[in-house]
Amino acid sequence: MTFEDFNFDEQLMDGIRSMGYENPTPIQEQAIPVIMQKHDLIACAQTGTGKTAAYVLPVINNILHAKHRHFNTLILAPTRELALQIDQQIEGFGYFVNVSSIAVYGGGDGMAWEQQHKAIHAGADIITATPGRLISMLTMKEVNLNHLEHLVLDEADRMLDMGFYDDIMRIISYLPKKRQTVLFSATMPPKIRDMARKILHDPKEITLSIAKPAEGITQQAYLAYDAQKEKLLLDILSNEEYQSILIFASTKEKVKKLGADLRQKGYAVKAFHSDIEQIEREQIMRDFKGRRLRILVGTDVLSRGIDVEGINLVINYDAPPDPEDYVHRIGRTARADAKGTAITFINERDQEKFSRIEQLIGKEVPKIPLPEKLGSGPLYEPGKKRPQSFNRHGGKGRPGGGNGKPAGNRRRF
What we know:
Blueprint (H helix, E strand, L loop, with lengths): L9 H9 L7 H11 L4 E4 L6 H13 L9 E4 L3 H14 L7 E4 L5 H13 L3 E4 L1 H9 L10 E4 L2 H6 L3 H8 L7 E6 L4 H10 L4 E4 L9 E7 L2 H12 L7 E4 L3 H13 L4 E4 L5 H12 L5 E4 L2 H5 L7 E4 L6 H8 L9 E7 L4 H11 L27 E2 L5 E2 L16
Parallel strand pairs: 1-6, 1-7, 2-4, 2-5, 3-4, 5-6, 8-13, 9-11, 9-12, 10-11, 12-13
Antiparallel strand pairs: 14-15
């Protein structure tokens, strides 16, 4: 099947061809006809499967024939980075058609706010927004969505994980009841099903099973104590074949520390977290995409909020909390049939987590011996109950933590 088979408007096809798209991915092949026929849709598909184009293309095509153009479509996304990336794809696909779009998000400077404000008052066809900033605009009566025809919720599970359920329901209260609603989610827990029942009407359903990591990804793991991790990281980074590297850590504080430590060692690295200003976040992403920045360190927010080709190494400095997060994280490499490497550091506490990851992906990840200079790491014994120790106050604790908690940072992003 090719994109020609969807019978898109010819000007839209010019945009598709200019971006080098030839054959639809499975989610595009299934979702595009449903959306073009104006059915509500609930789709379970991961990042990296082409889901953005799966809804952007039919929505643009429908807009070209819509009675009401301005504020025709609202796309809700969990993060500023994802909102901007969606908006960039809309611009790319819509280059040859007269369809306008704007990304609406908080945290930017006055210039970004003014640009958003002007686009809203000019009446953009498509608004891609984070929930918080859109609520502010609705409350101030900056935008009227009475003629909205399409509502898209992208990464709905992530939005609910981030506490946006009430915001989403409040936004929907401003929308016309007669509309097409499309919900994309990487996972489909009961809370997503409950929300879907409230906001969708007789939806079609598409479920792509949780994709296994791409064949082009070489997966490896090291068993390492926390005290060994940074030296191990430096050993890996010394391999100059890795020119574009993404490092995931479990907490914002650890992201900051790793960024500072690596910078002190002379590496071209930036820490990506919520405490930096939006204008700096955007510059960091431009530098990373443009290969002016070799290393980017972040939390799981990056695993679904970044779409950069050419990343050839992903390092899980800490094992991810959920097996599906692992798939999302390492899916940042080996995109578009390229090759890549994913390395995970496993301490003694994270072995059960990693065992569940191996169950999900249906294979055992090779455990690579530590460099001899680092000494021995822990044995891989998932399922083994870790012995308790007594801290100096007489309370029970786990090895490595004198207060009953694991050593290191304890607050997640």
